[in-house]
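Input record, target 12 of the design panel.
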């Protein structure tokens, strides 16, 4: 079975779990291991009514303790994540204009295009893409009408939906999008991608030698800067 087949099975399993199906019930619809179902659905929270259904079900009556333990573990994990999030946010504090400027340089150094004269930044995270769109306009002074967009998408995903999503997020008109690159599904490959993004990877592009070289200059200055003690 190809990767997209597995992805469809994962989505189906998660949908059934959200409806309150037990793992054993899900296994009657999807031919994978119970461990796989457990991994796919471990972060899905059930309503009180759904939990009660599973507990009352004779097949799962004896597993009430493990069901409660699993739910408590999930709740504890969520609570730890929230605590870490707010603690780190407090540590960072409010970002200054210079902080945003330096952050953009660092992000571009890691994910940006290095071809002379061609500015490009690609990522699948909408928050990062949104941040870099603002960064290009505020610090690099790239006009909105000079910015182009491009989508890299896996075969089988909705291209129209992906293009509209990124256009809405960035404000780049669809008329300024390059042709979408569709990554063919390698049916014979045994490698399974763990991460696949519904809207693909988005690339912000512009053609301006002076501005792109300025970014490269900033990167060089940042990486060679001496840190004051």
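The sequence produced for target 12 reads:
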């Amino acid at each position: 079975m190809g990767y997209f087949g597995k992805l469809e099975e994962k989505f189906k399993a998660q949908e059934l779990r959200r409806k309150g199906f037990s793992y054993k019930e899900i296994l009657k619809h999807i031919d994978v291991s119970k461990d796989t179902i457990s991994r796919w659905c471990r972060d899905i929270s059930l309503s009180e009514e759904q939990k009660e259904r599973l507990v009352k079900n004779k097949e799962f009556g004896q597993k009430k303790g493990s069901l409660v333990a699993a739910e408590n573990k999930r709740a504890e994990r969520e609570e730890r994540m929230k605590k870490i999030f707010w603690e780190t946010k407090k540590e960072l504090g409010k970002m200054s204009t210079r902080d945003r400027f330096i952050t953009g340089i660092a992000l571009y150094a890691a994910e940006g295009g290095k071809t002379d004269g061609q500015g490009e930044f690609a990522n699948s995270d909408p928050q990062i893409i949104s941040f870099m769109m603002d960064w290009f306009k505020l610090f690099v002074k790239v006009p909105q009408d000079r910015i182009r967009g491009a989508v890299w998408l896996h075969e089988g995903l909705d291209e129209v939906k992906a293009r509209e999503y990124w256009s809405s997020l960035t404000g780049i008109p669809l008329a300024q999008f390059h042709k979408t690159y569709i990554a063919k599904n390698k049916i014979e490959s045994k490698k399974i991608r763990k991460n696949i993004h519904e809207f693909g990877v988005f690339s912000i592009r512009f053609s301006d030698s002076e501005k792109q070289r300025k970014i490269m200059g900033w990167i060089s200055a940042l990486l060679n800067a001496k840190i004051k003690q």
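The longest strand covers residues 148-154.
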